[in-house]
Task: inverse folding
């Protein structure tokens, strides 16, 4: 008896069948759960070149061994081949959907095939039904959620749904996992849409048991105590990630006008200060989490009044606010809510709107009729959100393919200000003042992502594990990035929340896992497992079209010096990139082309992977 | 001897309104909906975690803007007790409504007539189960990170 159910539920929408995949012990040992399982299964089940929007590409909703227990700050993840990047995609979500998968008796749900008409899946413990969703097609993600609960006569059912953006296969559409929680990045919503799958509804009546209840209880106490003592967690408890807006502004990392600038004069209006005044009413939490980083509230006054809004977390505030030169937090909340309803990544959306505004200002694209497509114009941003989600005009259809493809189709010089890595739109931490963050973007498995190795606080703090850090140089960055990536991947097997990991130590994660599933997990296991996953995913990505030349930064950060902020005048040059990248490859045990060496794979137990990609 | 009857201070008769009553008071304004209370309670009751198996609930309303914990009221006029055909439900002198598992026949009438769904049939034992305040130290209150749940004693001398 332990916290694994040991089963994945496999559903094939094409022939409307379901089956159980017993998780092999070797997979548990080598990959733990969550991201690890997803990486292993994607490599095993998805041959190179599989169409991300075809029936052969599975979408997996995976939990970790601690999901659904008292272990604080655990989440779930979606793993699939991204239609936006063509690469491995892991997209994480908090809330209450992933525990419900566990309570229904599964460590994960894998969906293959394609339904012949709009459908939703209803999982009630061992009962699995594929139901008609034609009446839901065309509804937004939250309306679909509500209607399914009404259909099923139970508002405690937990639902993952897509909005119109997913139906229309917008390549950065998301999966909405109950209110205010999304698997946001990389286009998982489009994968569901392409399967004619509107939603997955789950109700679970089983209890998750742990191997050693007493030991587990003690490990949980330790974790709660570590969270309580952490100043970083305390900051999140008070103001979520909204306080990062002013921090990023002061340090010159806040994107403004499509990442051209690193500061925004009106930052405080969209930061915790503006949000607490205009939006927040109370705190809300994911299931099992004492941090309660959600500051929930409503837009009560003004043009957009009358809707519930969660905290506008840093990435949305920065990319739909500062990046677009919009400082009215109620307007930013409105734009964010539109993205949530349509089921579209607010980060990529903010990036694309900024890109379109710049393209319009430079005369590369025409202003849509009646719309003044310029920075600072809320109406224009709203117009583009409707247009991208609904793909109403040629411009909307173009932008809905993501910034990499849009720039390619527009042609020169649009690619010079298309801000992405490997097709994933860059997050709101401009790297020109923190070169290690640049290396992290260059090398992250799913493309331009800040969460797999967030170096900012170490670089600006001047130290990483006793090693001095100068944010503007390339020294000592590669090792830090490798270690952070390994640890992140290793603990994403659990599936941990990044915010929880600001407080909970590796030792406590190991204690929790040992008590939950037995054995004797040492903290080092997370680093080692993470390195295994990182290399396996690299093999998958190499087989699916990436190469060394794509381990790079957008031209904006390489060719244009930062015009403002403490790092004014700085950029990450081609030489800087080459130097950091080579050091990174060496540390990873990869050859000059960024391919894992045979001995590296062998050391990690991946000798069977095809090195001949 | 029946196990539940050996609880200290248990009374055989329904207490009067003048008697004291301990219950969990809800400060719903502080509830974040985290469900740690339910996780801890479910572990105590079933040996595993699942908020659905807890002896308290949380209603999440209006896109999670509001979270309302629902706990047993330890009613003075307890319908669960009134409808029990096997006299398995009684009240302690702390005013806590308790179920004697040995006497319970699992008929489910208490479940059917509780107005706030705070009694359930335990899936393992087939007997009714409800909040009995964890011998005076409710786990839900201990684990709640915000003070949304607190113990109060009404009537008589305060503890």
Result:
């Amino acid at each position: 008896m332990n916290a694994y159910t040991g089963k994945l539920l496999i559903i094939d929408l094409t022939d409307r069948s379901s089956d159980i995949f017993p998780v092999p012990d070797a997979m548990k040992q080598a990959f733990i759960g969550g991201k690890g399982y997803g990486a292993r299964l994607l490599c095993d089940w998805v041959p190179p070149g599989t169409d991300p929007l075809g029936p052969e590409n599975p979408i997996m909703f995976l939990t970790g061994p601690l999901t659904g227990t008292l272990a604080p700050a655990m989440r779930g993840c979606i793993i699939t081949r991204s239609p936006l990047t063509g690469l491995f995609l892991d997209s994480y979500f908090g809330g209450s959907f992933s525990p419900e998968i566990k309570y229904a008796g599964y460590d994960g749900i894998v969906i293959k095939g394609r339904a012949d008409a709009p459908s939703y899946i209803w999982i009630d413990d061992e009962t699995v039904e594929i139901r008609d969703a034609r009446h839901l097609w065309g509804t937004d993600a939250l309306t679909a959620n509500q209607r399914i609960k009404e259909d099923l006569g139970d508002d405690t059912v937990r639902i993952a749904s897509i909005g119109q953006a997913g139906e229309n296969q917008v390549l950065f559409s998301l999966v909405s996992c109950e209110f205010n929680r999304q698997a946001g990045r990389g286009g998982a919503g489009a994968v569901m849409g392409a399967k004619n799958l509107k939603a997955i509804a789950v109700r679970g009546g089983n209890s998750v048991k742990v191997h050693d209840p007493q030991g587990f209880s003690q490990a949980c106490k330790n974790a709660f105590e570590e969270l309580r003592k952490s100043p970083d967690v305390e900051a999140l408890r008070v103001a979520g990630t909204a306080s990062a807006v002013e921090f990023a502004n002061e340090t010159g990392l806040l994107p403004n006008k499509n990442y051209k600038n690193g500061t925004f004069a009106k930052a405080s209006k969209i930061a915790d200060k503006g949000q607490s005044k205009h939006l927040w009413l109370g705190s809300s939490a994911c299931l099992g989490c004492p941090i309660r980083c959600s500051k929930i509230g409503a837009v009560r006054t003004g043009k957009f009044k009358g809707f519930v809004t969660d905290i506008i977390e840093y990435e949305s505030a920065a990319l739909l606010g500062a990046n677009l030169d919009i400082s009215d937090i109620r307007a930013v909340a409105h734009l964010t809510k539109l993205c949530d309803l349509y089921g579209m990544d607010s980060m990529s959306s903010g990036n694309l709107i900024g890109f379109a505004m710049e393209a319009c200002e430079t005369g590369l694209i025409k202003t849509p009729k009646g719309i003044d497509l310029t920075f600072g114009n809320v109406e224009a941003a709203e117009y583009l959100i409707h247009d991208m989600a609904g793909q109403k005009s040629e411009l909307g259809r173009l932008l809905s393919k993501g910034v990499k493809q849009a720039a390619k189709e527009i042609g020169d010089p649009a690619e010079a200000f298309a801000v992405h890595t490997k097709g994933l739109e860059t997050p709101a931490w401009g790297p020109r003042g923190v070169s290690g963050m640049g290396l992290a973007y260059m090398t992250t498995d799913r493309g331009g992502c800040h969460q797999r190795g967030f170096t900012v606080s170490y670089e600006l703090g001047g130290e990483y594990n006793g090693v001095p850090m100068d944010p503007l140089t390339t020294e000592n960055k590669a090792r830090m990035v490798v270690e952070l990536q390994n640890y992140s991947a290793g603990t994403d097997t659990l599936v941990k929340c990044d915010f929880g990991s600001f407080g909970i130590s590796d030792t406590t994660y190991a204690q929790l896992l040992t008590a939950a599933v037995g054995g004797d997990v040492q903290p080092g296991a997370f680093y080692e497992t993470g390195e295994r996953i990182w290399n396996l995913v690299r093999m998958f990505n190499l087989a699916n079209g990436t190469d060394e030349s794509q381990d790079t930064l957008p031209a904006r950060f390489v060719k244009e010096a930062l015009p403002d902020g403490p790092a004014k005048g700085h950029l990450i040059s081609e030489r800087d990139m080459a130097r950091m990248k080579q050091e990174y490859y060496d540390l990873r045990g990869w050859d000059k082309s960024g391919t894992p060496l045979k001995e590296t794979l062998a050391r990690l137990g991946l000798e069977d992977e095809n090195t001949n990609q | 001897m029946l196990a539940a009857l050996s609880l200290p201070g248990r009374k055989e008769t329904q207490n009067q309104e003048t008697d004291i009553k301990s219950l969990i008071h809800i400060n719903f304004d502080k509830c974040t909906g985290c469900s740690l209370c339910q996780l801890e309670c479910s572990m105590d009751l079933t040996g595993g975690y699942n908020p659905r198996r807890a002896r308290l609930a949380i209603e999440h309303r209006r896109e999670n803007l509001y979270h309302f914990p629902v706990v047993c009221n330890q009613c003075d006029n307890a319908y669960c007790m009134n409808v029990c055909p096997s006299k398995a439900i009684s009240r302690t002198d702390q005013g806590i409504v308790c179920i004697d598992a040995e006497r319970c026949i699992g008929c489910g009438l208490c479940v059917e007539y509780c107005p706030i769904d705070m009694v359930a049939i335990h899936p393992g034992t087939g007997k009714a189960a409800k909040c009995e305040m964890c011998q005076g130290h409710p786990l839900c209150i201990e684990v709640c990170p915000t003070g949304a749940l607190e113990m109060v004693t009404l009537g008589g001398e305060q503890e």
The two ends of chain A are 41 Å apart (CA to CA). Chain A has a mean pLDDT of 97. Residues 431-603 of chain A form a domain with the Aldehyde Ferredoxin Oxidoreductase Protein, subunit A; domain 3 fold (CATH 1.10.599.10). Chain A has three domains: 7-203, 253-418, 431-603.
